[in-house]
Amino acid sequence: METTTPLLPSNESPSSSLAAVPEEEEDYLPAASQTFKDFIKNVFWRETVKLWKIAGPIALSLICQNGTNILTSIFVGHLGNLQLSAVSVSLSVIITFCFGFLLGMGSALETLCGQAFGAGQVHMLGIYLQRSCFILLVTCVILLPIYIFAAPLLKVLGQDAELAALAGKFTLLAIPNLFSWAIYFPTQKFLQAQRKVGVITWIAMVALILHAFWLWLFIYEFDWGITGAAVAFDLTGWLIALAQAAYVMGWCKEGWRGFSWSAFKDIWSFVTLSLASAVMLCLEIWYMMSIVVLTGHLDNAVIALEYQWAGTDVIHRNKCCYKVRANRLICIYKSLVIGLVCMAVVLVAKDYFAYIFTSSKVMQVATSKLAFILAITMVLNSVQPVISGVAIGGGWQALVAYINIGCYYVFGLPLGFLLGYKANLGVE
């Protein structure tokens, strides 16, 4: 049954200095009453400009934020095949499992803050922010044993013993990064709801540059290997989280009015919406995790996992770029165009893009074989995140969760198992 979104408090007066009414939100004339030229000028172009004002910075920030995982893999990949596979498993299975759950729990804030900002009740954003931080902090504590027992869990899932041990070591060292998400997700949703996306982008860009420097310093100059990669991963996570929190408390006076005990009221209503969001997004994100686990059971698991990582990670990171909400038809069209561009880039660079991940010739040849499937997937995945974003904005998370179960787990994974193991197609 659909989870009911908690209503905004009716006894609170809207913010007097910030009406939060978006510009140019009047209805357009029906398409049938306009010429094609007028439609392009009055509807398509105006919606495109509004879309990119918000979506452009968000997409760039997501590329930078998710680029920390890619850079970590790139630097570790040149240490050796085993190191790359271990970090790939850690990032794609254990860390992705927790990331997906926390992202989903934090997405309830996206629904509530968007509604509060649209209703002019900007003062409620700070209360929702504190409530979300508290819930996510408790969730991090609950998820902590997964990090602590990562190595035995991976062995139970059938991963190679040496690979599981090294992945477990990286995961243990990444525990500080887990708790940074309790601040990172709520502050990000808080700022996005107010269209303050520029600061998120700048923070993400600076963090990505520093992450690259720290990886080089710790892995190669200090010769810390995987330990250095984990330290850089932790530092970058906390840098982004604390920078966003500092901006919220220092420059968002309308939405942030200090700490309040009101944040601990109506906790259960907030949790139920958070859980619905978590289920919806987790079912999507954990699908990639399940593919990695299945890949680890193939022959020559180390090469297979590297092969899978260089391909599907490109899919996952590009999908993040589409997750913005705007006018649905225009947004879907633009996302489809981006998907086609990404498909073209993958096909043109199919023999080269694996070079940045690894020096292994076997890995480079294997990854190029995946390029055609990867390119098609880019187009297919370009529209779905937009629809998910609309669902989050409307509070329809439970319905989308049922759809994800059917598409990913009833159809997708069984088909992948049959093609990979029974039809002997392997990673392809």
Sequence-ordered SSE layout with sheet pairings:
Elements: H1 36-77, H2 81-118, H3 123-148, H4 150-156, H5 161-173, H6 175-193, H7 197-221, H8 226-251, H9 267-295, H10 301-321, H11 328-348, H12 361-369, H13 371-380, H14 384-394, H15 397-422
Helix pairs in contact: 1-2, 1-7, 1-8, 1-10, 2-3, 2-5, 2-6, 2-9, 2-10, 3-6, 4-5, 5-8, 6-8, 7-8, 9-10, 9-15, 10-12, 10-13, 11-13
GO biological process, one term: xenobiotic detoxification by transmembrane export across the plasma membrane
Membrane topology: Multi-pass membrane protein
Transmembrane segments: 54-76, 82-103, 133-154, 166-185, 197-219, 225-247, 267-289, 332-349, 370-393, 399-421
Structural notes for this entry:
- This protein has 428 residues and is mostly helical.
- The protein has one domain.
- The chain has 15 helices and no strands.
- The chain has helices at 36-77, 81-118, 123-148, 150-156, 161-173, 175-193, 197-221, 226-251, 267-295, 301-321, 328-348, 361-369, 371-380, 384-394, 397-422.
- The two termini are 37 Å apart.
- The model is unreliable at 1-7, 10-24 and 296-326 (pLDDT under 50).
- One of its GO terms (cellular component) is membrane.
- This is PROTEIN DETOXIFICATION.
- GO terms for molecular function: antiporter activity; xenobiotic transmembrane transporter activity.
- Pfam families: MatE (PF01554).
- It is found in: Membrane.
